[in-house]
Amino acid sequence: MEILVVIGIIVVVLLGLWFFRLFGYRDGVIRIELDDRYSDRNDFILAVKDELEKRGMNVRYKGDANFIINDVEYMFQEINHPIAGIPVQRALLEKIIE
Q1: For residue 95, which of 3, 28, 36, 81 is within the disulfide window of CB 3.0 to 4.6 Å?
Q2: For 35-90, how does the pLDDT look when each residue is reduced to its tens digit (9 = 90+)?
Q3: Where does residue 97 rank: exposed (0-12), middle (13-18), buried (19+ CB within 10 A)?
């Protein structure tokens, strides 16, 4: 019985770590959560670009979901997930390693 409890705890911890990484909490990722919700992808990309510029970063949208931020290339990904039943829209910008 004690073995099952230990296995259950290990499974819960591993799932928690997987979700943590899934939502962008890892090295080389810029996470942006905006106050507004955007249904049009182009408007969302412009809002992300404006937010990055407000943070003092040099930003250029290259197209095809690629940003150049401070001379480093990042890939844009939109994530939608519920937090306490409220849908949250986030932008993840992951560094492209060449």
Answers
A1: 28
A2: 888 889 899 999 999 999 999 999 999 988 899 999 999 999 888 877 777 788 88
A3: exposed
Residue extents of the structural domains in the chain: 27-95
d(C-alpha 36, C-alpha 63), whole Å: 22
pTM: 0.70
CB of 87 within 8 A of CB of 81?
yes
Six-digit token string for 56: 């003092």
Which of 40, 55, 26, 53 shows the shortest CA–CA distance to 89?
Answer: 40
**Cα–Cα dist 49/67, whole Å:** 9
Q: Which residue has the tokens 């940003």?
A: 67
Backbone conformation region of residue 74, classed left if phi is above 0, alpha if psi is from -120 to 50, else beta: beta
Q: Can you give the pLDDT at residue 48?
A: 93
